[in-house]
Design a protein that fits this description.
Structural class of chain B: alpha/beta
Largest sheet of chain A: 8 strands, mixed, barrel
CATH class of the largest domain in chain A: Alpha Beta
CATH topology of the largest domain in chain A: TIM Barrel
Number of strands of chain B: 7
Number of domains of chain A: 4
Strand order of the largest sheet of chain B: 3-2-1-4-5-7-6
CATH topology of chain B: Rossmann fold
CATH superfamily of chain B: Vaccinia Virus protein VP39
Largest sheet of chain B: 7 strands, mixed
Radius of gyration of chain B: 18 Å
Shape of chain A: elongated
Largest interface: A-B, 38 and 43 residues
Shape of chain B: globular
Number of strands of chain A: 21
Strand order of the largest sheet of chain A: 13-14-16-17-18-19-20-21
Oligomer: heterodimer
Helix content of chain B: 25-40%
Chain lengths: ~725, ~270
């Protein structure tokens, strides 16, 4: 179409420009003005067509009005301005092409009708669009609402599921304390009656065991001064029993932060609490007698001893006499029933406040009294106990008499620890027992000290062996005929970290008692044999050096004796004939063949066996024949009489007799405790073979013997 | 009782909504009387408000076209409101069919309406989420399914950051979103400001008060300097952060309404 200046298309465009200038400022379009104008051109064309049509068609013009709404010209001002533009410029710019109405008046009339139709089309389209958009936004609001409602419903459902399904009890109350909601778990905790909870007031639920701060915290929370608190609290169930809970209460605030509700979470701890109490009871009581046990007694004793200096305490430590015999002979069932009866009787003896009876274990019981005058009281208590035990106990128609030994400790609190007190009581009880039993003794510090040392050494023995605290001294054995050194006796010593060097008399009985003598004895044997071998190597020319080692009764009975001895000799490379094992006469008294068999084996191998301390026991001379013995060692008591001058003639006669007897049985004789030259000479004359004693040398380190042997060999 | 965090917010259409007011300013009827009342009251103080909205739409259009020119065909429009006309996907998909757009708004009515409008358009999605919790947006199924974050995205924050108060850390939120975007991504921000306002600050405050007290969605006016902070990590493209009519105009800025010079627009490219 022609766009030459002044042509119809140019005029149409100029109309569109005027139109867009008029309405662009009141449109909401995001198009630029040129873009917008471009959109108006087809509309202008339609207006021109409407103007020029032979018959007026209002549809074209209505369409233009509606198209304005489509171009987002929804402001009524856009219509007003459009109508102004059409009125003023449509005929002017587009009238020439009109082929229908010839006269200008007709064109003006047509233009007027066009305006009416544009306005009607605009209004109709605006009304439609408005209704559509209003409906759309309403629907959107409804959709959004139902989406939110759905989400709320879902969250509410989740919340309710959590609330009702929770294993923990949940309750909600207002700030006055009125209970609004409770969940099933809470109802179950309270015994299943919901109406007893809902609508009730929290403040009614006091319990005598409420800790003082429980209600203080509650009031702080409902006043909004605290966000939450957690306490252990008891409630009454409808049936009067106690419900124990771990209770957590939180304050719930509204969106503006104002306190609104309180939320309680409760965990039922009743069972756990009962279990704890039961466990505590079981942990602190003796299952058999129901008396407090060692744990509880120590707790109590600790409290008593920590009570302050003005307080005193008295303790009776009771051990039944001969209970083991009853147990062994009548059985444990009877023993147990006896203990139960004893426990009952003891309980009846200690009923005053501050008194307590406990079973420490086995047949050991303690009774404790506290107060200001325990010196008299504990004596009285011990008396009551002895008296209570004096009546025989009837079990299965059998009358059993029960006796007990009691150790009493009494004194001011805060001086000793519970362990010290109990040890003293234990020691004292043993003293009562060794004094024959069926009596009570009062603790004595000196007796305690002795026992404590003995006890201390006993317990320190095993570690001492591990730590190498033992060592061996050697005392030379001298041939009386020529005064030459022919060997030595090994004597074990203990270098105790506190007590210094201890002789065998201090610890060998303890080791024998505890069984440690076996490993200790083996160590001594090995050490001595090794030493003997060293001597042999150093001065083979001084003749065979022998080593005497003591053997305790328990070692003698130990099944490994022969094997151990053989093994040691072989390993060290010492001939059996260089070893002499010393056994005390008392160890062999009444020894049967089984016990003697190992000794015989050793003797057959060439090991010498010496009968130690001969003459101290009930020396059964007839016995000598059946013992596998090569040497008699005369006890020092025989030689003591020869220290003075002139020597005791009776002693002389006895020694002479023994020597002659021994030689008659092909035994050699060694004497101990030789302290003077006169003694030595006497013994030589009497025919003794070997001697040892201070006259020659005290026990000393292995090198001393080496020197003596050298001196002997060169001298 | 305090609402649990996971319970959705309710809908109260007796409270005006910024997106429906926006629609009203753009000549739409997606609004209720309560919205129109608030809109008219704000206009008593600032009659040119509709022009500002219109300028926002116009500059957004230019920015979307700019992004398309840069080869970007993925758009994340947060604070999209009610899509009256001339929306991102209309502009983008007309020029580049298959361009993908995710709309995000926290107004449930706007989201519901957008869903109705966008039904049947597989390359668009609408998500109910809040600019203040970027993680919800970035981890949403809509974003993950429609946008490829390994390729550049145009992040559109049109007339939305001025509804986020400083206490809610809008700079941090933009930074968190930006961190998830590939290099070459564009950030488009328009923001209200007293600067460039053709009326006194006191008068403008009247409109601000309407938003604060009636709409309950405070309008936070920020300075050029404050607005520039949103572009940390971006290089602003020419002509920088400027009044809307001055950003790559297609017609003479002198012809524009004076109100359209209030506030700023900026486009930045992620390094």
């Amino acid at each position: 179409m022609s766009e030459e200046p002044g042509g119809p298309e140019d005029r149409l465009r100029r109309f569109a420009t005027i139109w867009s200038r008029a309405i662009y400022p009141v449109t909401a379009t995001s198009l630029t003005r040129p873009e917008f104008e471009h959109e108006l051109v087809p509309l202008a064309r339609r207006l021109r067509a409407a103007l020029a049509a032979r018959a007026f068609d209002s549809g074209q013009a209505r369409g233009v009005g509606a198209a304005l709404i489509g171009a987002h010209c929804t402001d009524p001002e856009a219509l007003s301005r459009t109508l102004d533009v059409v009125d003023a410029y449509l005929v002017l710019y587009c009238g020439e092409e009109a082929s229908g109405p010839e006269r200008e008046d007709d064109l003006r009339a047509r233009c007027g009708r066009i305006q009416h139709a544009v306005a009607a089309g605009f209004a109709a389209a605006l009304r439609d669009r408005t209704l559509v958009e209003q409906e759309a936004i309403s629907r959107a609001a409804l959709d959004a609402r139902s989406a939110v409602a759905e989400a709320l419903h879902a969250s509410e459902a989740r919340f309710r599921a959590v609330f009702h399904g929770a294993a923990i009890g949940i309750g909600i109350a207002d700030l006055d304390g009125t209970v609004l909601e409770v969940n099933d778990a809470l109802v179950r905790m309270f015994g299943g009656a919901e109406q007893l909870l809902r609508g009730r007031n929290v403040a009614e639920w006091t319990h005598p065991e409420d800790a003082p701060q429980v209600w203080h915290l509650y009031h702080e929370l409902v006043r909004g001064e605290r966000e939450h608190y957690r306490v252990e609290k008891a409630f009454y169930r409808p049936d009067g029993t106690a419900l124990w809970t771990n209770l957590t209460v939180s304050l719930l605030r509204d969106a503006d932060g104002q306190p609104q509700y309180q939320l309680a979470l409760m965990e039922d701890t009743t069972e756990r609490r009962l279990l704890n109490l039961r466990l505590r009871y079981e942990a602190t009581h003796d299952a058999l007698t129901g008396l407090p046990n060692r744990t509880l007694f120590f707790e109590r004793l600790e409290k008593v001893l920590g009570a302050g200096e003005s307080m005193r305490f008295g303790l009776c430590y009771l051990d039944l006499d001969g209970f083991k015999t009853i147990n062994d002979s009548l059985g444990h069932a009877v023993g147990d029933r006896l203990l139960v009866e004893v426990a009952d009787r003891l309980q009846s003896c200690a009923t005053a406040p501050g008194e307590m009876v406990a079973r420490l274990g086995g047949d050991e019981f303690v009774a404790l009294t506290t107060g200001a005058d325990t010196a008299a009281e504990v004596d009285d208590l011990a008396g009551r106990i002895m008296h209570a035990l004096s009546a025989p106990i009837r079990i299965d128609g059998r009358e059993l008499s029960v006796r007990g030994s009691i150790g009493i400790v009494e004194g001011p609190a805060s001086e000793r620890s519970p362990a010290e007190v109990l040890r003293s009581a234990d020691i004292t009880m043993y003293r009562a027992k060794s004094a024959g039993g069926n009596r009570y003794e009062l603790a004595d510090p000196e007796a305690d000290a002795r026992a404590i040392t003995r006890h201390g050494l006993t317990t320190a023995l095993p570690a001492a062996l591990d730590r190498g605290e033992f060592f061996i001294e050697y005392q030379p054995l001298v041939r009386l005929g020529d005064g030459s050194v022919r060997g030595a006796e090994a004597l074990v010593r203990w270098l105790h970290p506190q007590h210094g060097v201890l002789g065998p008399d201090r610890f060998i009985p303890l080791a024998e008692h505890t069984g440690l003598i076996v490993p200790l004895g083996r160590w001594v044997l090995e050490e001595s044999v090794r030493q003997a071998r060293v001597w042999q190597e150093r001065h083979a020319d001084a003749g065979p050096m022998r080593i005497n080692v003591n053997l305790s009764p328990m070692q003698l009975a130990h099944p490994g004796l022969v094997a151990d001895t053989v093994e040691i000799l072989e390993r060290c490379g010492l001939s059996p004939s260089a070893l002499c094992l010393e056994v005390t006469e008392s160890a062999l008294i009444g020894a049967d063949d089984d016990l003697l068999k190992p000794l015989r084996r050793l003797s057959e191998m060439g090991v010498d066996i010496a009968l130690d301390d001969f003459g101290t026991g009930y020396s059964n001379l007839a016995n000598l024949r059946r013992l596998p013995v090569n040497v008699l060692k005369l006890d020092r008591s025989f030689t003591q009489g020869m220290q003075q001058f002139p020597a005791d003639p009776v002693d002389l006669k006895i020694v002479e007799g023994i020597v002659s007897l021994a030689h008659g049985l092909d035994l050699s004789v060694t004497v101990e405790g030789v302290e003077t030259g006169a003694q030595a000479e006497q013994l030589r004359v009497l025919g003794c073979d070997t001697a040892q004693g201070w006259y020659y040398a005290r026990p000393g380190p292995p090198d001393r013997l080496h020197e003596l042997a050298l001196a002997d060999a060169t001298g | 009782m305090q609402r649990p965090a996971w319970a959705p917010h309710g809908i109260d259409i007796t409270v005006p909504s910024v997106s429906r007011i926006y629609d009203y300013y753009l000549g739409g009827s997606h609004n209720f009387e309560v919205d129109r009342e608030a809109a008219r009251r704000a206009m008593e103080f600032m009659p040119g408000l509709p022009k500002i909205m219109q300028a926002n739409r116009a500059v957004m259009r230019r920015a979307v076209r700019y992004a398309l020119d840069q080869g970007i065909t993925q758009f994340l429009d947060i604070g999209s409101g009610i899509p009256t006309f001339g929306n991102v996907h209309e502009v983008a998909q007309r020029a580049s069919p298959g361009a993908r757009v995710v709309y995000v708004d926290h107004d449930p009515v706007a989201v519901a309406h957008s869903k109705a409008v966008l039904e049947g358009n597989p390359d668009t999605a609408v998500l109910a989420a809040d600019l203040r919790t970027p993680k919800d947006i970035l981890t949403s199924a809509e974003v993950r399914e429609l946008l490829d974050l390994d390729r550049p995205v145009a992040l559109l924050l049109i007339a939305v950051l001025h509804f986020v108060e400083d206490d809610d850390d809008p700079v941090g939120a933009v930074a968190e979103l930006s961190a998830a975007l590939a290099p070459g991504s564009l950030l488009v921000v328009t923001h209200a400001s007293y600067e460039g306002m053709p009326i006194s600050t006191d008068r403008a405050d009247g409109a601000v008060d309407v938003y604060r007290n009636e709409v309950r969605n405070p309008l936070i006016m920020r300075s050029h300097e404050e607005i520039a902070r949103f572009f940390t990590g971006y290089e602003t493209v020419e002509p920088g952060i400027v009044p809307m009519p001055l950003w790559r105009p297609q017609t003479a800025p002198e012809d524009e309404d004076p109100y359209t010079f209030a506030g700023y627009v900026g486009v930045g490219r992620k390094a």
